[in-house]
Design goal:
Helix content of chain A: 55-70%
Radius of gyration of chain A: 18 Å
Number of domains of chain A: 1
Oligomer: homodimer
Structural class of chain A: mainly alpha
Number of strands of chain A: 3
Strand content of chain A: 5-15%
CATH topology of chain A: Arc Repressor Mutant, subunit A
CATH class of chain A: Mainly Alpha
CATH architecture of chain A: Orthogonal Bundle
Number of helices of chain A: 5
Largest sheet of chain A: 3 strands, antiparallel
Strand order of the largest sheet of chain A: 1-3-2
DNA sequence: GGACTATACATGCATGCGCATACATTGCAA
DNA sequence: TTGCAATGTATGCGCATGCATGTATAGTCC
């Protein structure tokens, strides 16, 4: 067991399988219900959620890449989709004109608030049980 | 709903974020190194690994769908790719001609055995540290 | 200033995924 | 038997992703 032999290859592999299973179970349920009730994907929800935590002007995309687990190109398009839906607006940074500030809109905050209820519900149901 | 208990919405959400981060970190490292050293994706490795555990004739795709966290269509194509690489062979089930048995080949077992070394290494490095 | 490198974001492209559906086979009922 | 629903797999399609690259701006060294 894990006390006598804590880190054998086998126990690491089965721990990884558990992580995969858990992630897949929760993610699939979230994806389904967020999409159905709020037309948001899990990644879109996550991005909105991170943006909502930033004060004021939002934050640079570069900073979001670190928060969110996604390539820079995927994030660029993700913000584009949220922008097209009016949930986020983009603004070029004045002191570094390479940078883009993304900022959640009021409509974005509304959609997020509603989706958070669904997320809490799904997590309560799926995060801890089989 | 939540009593004076630790499972508030906030703690559930942050637990989910931790799970996302952990999954992303390990998965990205595995994907990179399995691909680089063995030309296998994480899902391909996982499928080979499950198939190797089945005795004798392999198992039906339907059964693999339950083991692996993937849609039926994705699994069908995944097995197709493994087949094209000679790591798996397919056989129609004799008693139910709708079913397909997938079975790992000797070459598949070799690739898997080599990849398992890499996997163990990556897991030892990434599963438990930040 | 001019040239070169580094950084931030956008985009062409190839790929894997899920959904819906098609197709083949099985089983069940009338 | 015939007809029809159910099951197992394959496939057309649209979409999100990562990689490589393009474009613009910033910073550095001469």
């Amino acid at each position: 067991m894990s006390f006598a032999m804590p880190n054998t290859d086998v126990s690491l592999a089965s721990e990884w399988r558990d992580l995969l299973a858990r992630h897949a179970r929760v993610n699939a349920a979230l994806e389904r219900e967020l999409q159905r009730d709020h037309r948001l994907s899990v990644t879109e929800f996550e991005a909105l959620s991170r943006l909502a935590e930033k004060d004021g002007d939002g934050c640079r995309l570069q900073q979001l890449v670190d928060d969110i687990h996604m390539s820079q190109s995927a994030l660029s398009r993700l913000i584009g989709r949220l922008h097209d839906e009016g949930l986020v607006h983009r603004r070029t940074c004045s002191d570094d004109r390479r940078g883009i500030f993304a900022c959640i809109t009021d409509e974005g905050r509304e959609r997020l608030a509603q989706a958070e209820v669904t997320q809490a519900d799904v997590l309560a149901r799926t995060l801890h049980d089989a």
